């Protein structure tokens, strides 16, 4: 899940995972996976505030599916630079 607020000149990002994900190890792994994807695509994203919320299925998803879903949610939020 992504919350995006476009703002000029500001590039902030936050990652969160609730206890529904699992114990601390699982929550941290979910946030690390999201962070890695964000770093990979950060140069092609618009300025703004991004808040990523991890879901339960994130830890069981393959990297290819996670990348596909990440691109889909960024496109839906219209956060890619033109």
Question: Could you explain the architecture of this structure?
Answer:
The chain contains 2 helices and 3 strands. Strand 2 (11-16), helix 1 and strand 3 form a beta-alpha-beta unit. The protein has helices at residues 24-41, 63-76, and strands at 2-6, 11-16, 48-53. The mean pLDDT is 91. The chain has a 3-stranded mixed β-sheet with strand order 1-3-2, covered by helices on one side. By secondary structure, the chain is of the alpha+beta class. The chain has one domain (2-76): Ribosomal Protein S5, domain 2 (2-Layer Sandwich), CATH 3.30.230. 39% of the residues lie in helices and 21% in strands.
- The share of residues in extended strands comes to 15-25%
Counted beta strands: 3
SSE series: EEHEH
Spatial gap, N to C terminus = 22 Å
General form: globular
Oligomer: single chain
The whole-number mean of residue pLDDT values reads 91
Q: What do we call the CATH topology? A: Ribosomal Protein S5, domain 2
- Could you give the order of strands across the largest sheet? 1-3-2
Largest sheet: 3 strands, mixed
What is the name of the CATH class?
Answer: Alpha Beta
Number of domains: 1
Q: Tell me roughly what share of residues is in helical segments.
A: 25-40%
CATH architecture: 2-Layer Sandwich
Q: List the uncertain runs.
A: none
Alpha carbon gyration radius:
13 Å
Give the number of helices: 2
Structural class: alpha+beta
